[in-house]
Input
Amino acid sequence: MSDPSSFLPLALARFHTLAALSGGELHGYAIMQIVEVSSGGLVKMGPASLYGTLKKLVDLGLVEEVGAPDVDADRRRRYYRLTGLGERVCLAEADRLAVLASRTRRNLGPRRPEPA
Amino acid sequence: MTAHIRSYRAVVRLYPKGFRREFGDDLVRHFAELVSDLGPRRAWSRTFLDLVITLPIYRLEAIMSPSRSNITLNLTIVVLTAAGLISIFAMDTSTLGTTFGVVLLGAAAVVAITQRTRLARSLRITNGSRTRRLTLAAISAVVFAAAIVGYLMAIGDGDDPVSGAVLVAYNLVGIIALIATGVFLAKGLRTPRTIKAAPISH
Output
């Protein structure tokens, strides 16, 4: 199953996790922090939700575990990054949402005057 | 290690073994960082909600995993069959008991057939396949025998007229059980006792 569209639509937590990893290799706690900031505080992942999501993404082949990225990194932590398929799926979902957002903006704005 | 982290480590033990083994240390480290960054109160409020949501889901997923679902389904079949037979033969209110029992036996048959279909799709034969199939054949044979006994008792009791629906139900259960017995017995006997090891390629 290597067709990115077969993974869509992605669950919110999965997409946020992939989007966080699109910036590079991260450990679990950093993913949680980035998701919280990038969602404006709306998505707050707890530890088990985060690692459960990561496990599913790894099982689906969208994310892979990697070694510590540099010598200063904490070796006890596990780091994750997007696979090639993960990148394509993340982009496909971003495009899908962009089209949806664009259509919604076109339909609703600029606001039409209320009928009398 | 603070009391909060010790408590969370204890709570992590509630998660399924596989998840705990893979991520237990990560979860505790993550929680420790939450306590350090947000303080214990906010760390717990976030983690408590996370626990309430994920614990039943991960538990259910572990139960329904392929390795566990066979055991769960076999147990379900046995319990439904036993409850159905008890309802038919032991409940005092005969019509209600019989109807309820037939429904339970029907449910057991549906679960068994569904399970067999799912297993039939799988090319992999596990060590316990032969035993499981022969066990199901035995259970089906017991159900078949019970259906015959029930049918004979129903038609033999001249003082208490039995409705046609009850007789049809006995027939239906008996036929399904007979077919199931034959299918499971044939499949069980055709399943090898041991699995041949796959050749090792160098």
